[in-house]
Amino acid sequence: ELADEDRRAQKLAEATKLARRALDESADCVRASWLLGGLLQAQQDYTGAIKAYRRAFEQDPRFLPEVLSPLEQCCQLAGDKEGYVAFLADAKEMSSSALPLIAEARLLADHHADASLQLAVALESRPSRELLVEFLGALERRPEMKEAGFDRAASSVRAALLLSVTCCLPP
């Protein structure tokens, strides 16, 4: 808690020391690992941040939503794309979340590859609204779907799914 207070006060070096001390006292403290990752990331120690974020996830896979995006950013800035891909593979094994499957599909799309088959397989094993939204987005981009006019239907269903998620969230 003291490390988090120092982080909010922009005392990053002191917050980092306190987070490390918390981990020395309780090596399985996921909150301290996650906080350390953010502190190291803010100090541009991307390799250290990657290790801390991975440790937080390994300590508690339920922290995947909190570590996925910052871990991806750190891996990009560290030039460690392979490390991020390896993390996603580990995350698929350790977590029942659809997030690593979606992240893999987005990596494919970033390289102009079609992720629809991968997403279809993922939907069979881990059906979720998030995966369905990604799958419909991938279908929208397929040329044969556009030629047949199905891209508009996929877009409409995807928009409805996204709207139903946002309308049901608490304020």
Overview of this structure, please?
By secondary structure, this protein is mostly helical. Helix content is 80%, strand content 0%. The chain has 11 helices and no strands. The protein is elongated. The model has no long low-confidence stretch (mean pLDDT 89).
Helix-strand layout with pairing:
Elements: H1 2-8, H2 12-25, H3 30-42, H4 46-59, H5 64-78, H6 81-94, H7 99-110, H8 116-125, H9 129-141, H10 143-148, H11 150-167
Helix pairs in contact: 1-2, 2-3, 3-4, 4-5, 5-6, 6-7, 7-9, 8-9, 9-11
Major sheet summary line? none
Shape: elongated
Total strands: 0
Class of secondary structure makeup:
mainly alpha
Instruction: Identify low-pLDDT runs.
Output: none
Order of helices and strands: HHHHHHHHHHH
Terminal CA distance: 27 Å
Average of per-residue pLDDT values: 89
What integer value in Å does the Rg equal? 19 Å
The helicity comes to over 70%
Number of helices in the DSSP assignment: 11
| Strand proportion | under 5%
Write a brief structural summary.
The chain has eleven helices and no strands. By secondary structure, it is an all-alpha fold.
